[in-house]
Amino acid sequence: MPPPAATNLGYTPPDGGWGWAVVFGAFISIGFSYAFPKSLTIYFKEIQEYFSVSYSEIAWVSSVMLASMYAGGPISSMLVNRYGSRPVVLVGGIMVCTGMVLASFGTSIIHLYLCVGVIGGFGLAFNLQPALTIIGTYFQAKRPLANGLAMTGSPVVLFTLAPLNQFLFDSFGWRGSFLILGSIVMNCCVAGALMRPVNKRVQPKPTNESPKRNGGGEEAETVNTGAQSADLLNEDSQTASKGQSNVHKLIDISLFKHRGFLIYLAGNVIMFFGFFAPVVFLAPYAKHLGIDEYSAAFLLSIFALVDMFIRPATGFIGNTKWVRPRIQYFFSFAVSYNGVCHLLCPLASGYLGLVVYAVFFGLAFGMLSALLFEVLMDLVGANRFSSAVGLVTIIECGPVLLGPPLSGALVDIFGDYKYMYYACGVFMLVPGIFFFIMHYYNYKKLDEEQRQSVAVEMKTSEETVELKMNQDDKTVDAADG
C-alpha cells in the first residue's frame, strides 16, 4: 500500500456553514448530470418512429451522453484543479443548453448523437466532477451524509422531469421540448454560482470526533480527508506550477498498484454494463406491454421518489459508527441487491407488478448511487480522489457506452425485454459477489498491515529508548571519570 500522505494543511473543513449551500449546488448539478439522460427516454419511442431506427440505435442517444459524461471526467478534473469548481460548472450548464437547442433542429439520429450525446454529455461532465470534488473540501466528519444529500439530486430531478417531459411532448412535440429543456438545464449555472472556494484561512479547531477508517490503506490520510481534498482544489489564486502539480496527480499511475482501487475498478467495469440500461428501458418496456404513456412515465417518477428518500438515508446509515468502518460491505450488498431486482423483474405481471419493481429498484439504485463515490474516496483517500475519479471514469465510459445499446440489441433479437433484464441482473450480481469476497480479503490484509506497522513502531520505540539509555549511561560514566 502507498505511504500515508501529509495531512497538515493548516485549516479544518467547516463541516457546515456555507458548505450546506455548496451541497445544495451539488444537489442541482449532480441531479441534472444523472437524471437528464434518463429523463430523455420519454421521447425515445417517438424519436425512434420519427427517424425509423431500431431499439439499439435509439439507445445510443442516452448511451453516448452518459459515456461522454464519463469520458470527460479527466478533462473536468484538470479544469477544476486549475480554475476551481465554480467556472467549470457554469461552462457545463451553457454546453448542455447549447447541445439541446441544436438537437431541436436535428434532421437525423446522428445529429442527436452529436448534439445531445457529445456536446450535452461533456457539459454534464463539467457539472458532475466539480460537484463531487468540492464537497470533500467543505466536509470531513459529515462527508458521507453530505455526499448522500448531494446525490439525492438525481432522483429529485428525475421525479420532476419524467412527468414534465411527457407534458412538454404532448404540448410542443420533441423538438419544442428540447428547446425548453435547454433553458431548464441552465439552472446548473445557478448551482455553479454557489460553489465558492473554501476559506483555507480558517483557524484549526480542536475536535474529539474523527472519522473511522473505512477500508482504505492509509489511516493517517483518512483522519483529515476533507482537508486533503482541499489540496486538490486551489482555486483562482493557484499558480501555473501548482496547476501542473495537480495535473500530475490526475494521472497518478501509481493508483494501479493500489489494492483497493483495483478491486473497485475491476468490479465497476463489469457492473456498469448493467447499471443504466434498466432505467433507460423502464418506460419503453411499459409501453411495450401496452401501458399508456403517462402511466409509463409515472413509473420513472415512482422509481425517482423512492430513490429520493433512500439516498440521504443511506448517507446517514453510512455515517454511523457501526457501518462506516466497513462501508465496503454495505456497497457490496447494494450492488448485489440491484442484480437480484433485475433478475426478478420479468416475473412482474401487469402495471402493478412494474410499480412493485420500480419501488424495489429505486431502493437498490439509490443505495448504490449514494455510496458509489463515497467508497472510492474511502479506499484511496480524499487527497487522491480527483486522480482516482479521472482514471475510473475514463475506463468506465466503455461499459457505460456499450451497456444500453447491447441491451437494446437483445430486445431487437428476441423481441422481448425479459432477456435484457436477465443480462443486466447477471452483470450486477456477479460484481456484487466479487466485491464481498475481495473486500473481505482487503480488510483482512489491512488489519495484518496495521498490526505489522504497530509492531514496527513499538520495536523502533524500544530501540530508541534503549539507545537513549546507553547514551545517558555513557554520559554519567564520563562525568564520574
UniProtKB/TrEMBL annotation:
Location (main, coarse): membrane
In the UniProt record, the gene name given for this protein reads: SLC16A7
Q: Name one GO cellular component term.
A: basolateral plasma membrane
What name has this protein been given in UniProt? Major facilitator superfamily (MFS) profile domain-containing protein
The protein's location, in the record's own words, is:
Basolateral cell membrane
Catalytic activity, as annotated: 3-methyl-2-oxobutanoate(out) + H(+)(out) = 3-methyl-2-oxobutanoate(in) + H(+)(in); 4-methyl-2-oxopentanoate(out) + H(+)(out) = 4-methyl-2-oxopentanoate(in) + H(+)(in)
Q: Give the matching Gene3D superfamilies.
A: MFS general substrate transporter like domains
Give the highest taxon in the source lineage. Eukaryota
User: Does this UniProt record's set of keywords contain rRNA processing?
Assistant: no
Membrane topology, record value: Multi-pass membrane protein
UniProt region (Disordered), positions on chain: 201-221
Q: Which chain regions cross the lipid bilayer?
A: 17-36, 88-105, 111-132, 176-195, 261-283, 295-317, 329-349, 355-376, 388-407, 419-441
What organism is listed for this UniProt entry?
A: Amphiprion ocellaris (Clown anemonefish)
State the InterPro entries in the record: MCT (IPR004743), MFS (IPR011701), MFS_dom (IPR020846), MFS_trans_sf (IPR036259), Proton-linked_MCT (IPR050327)
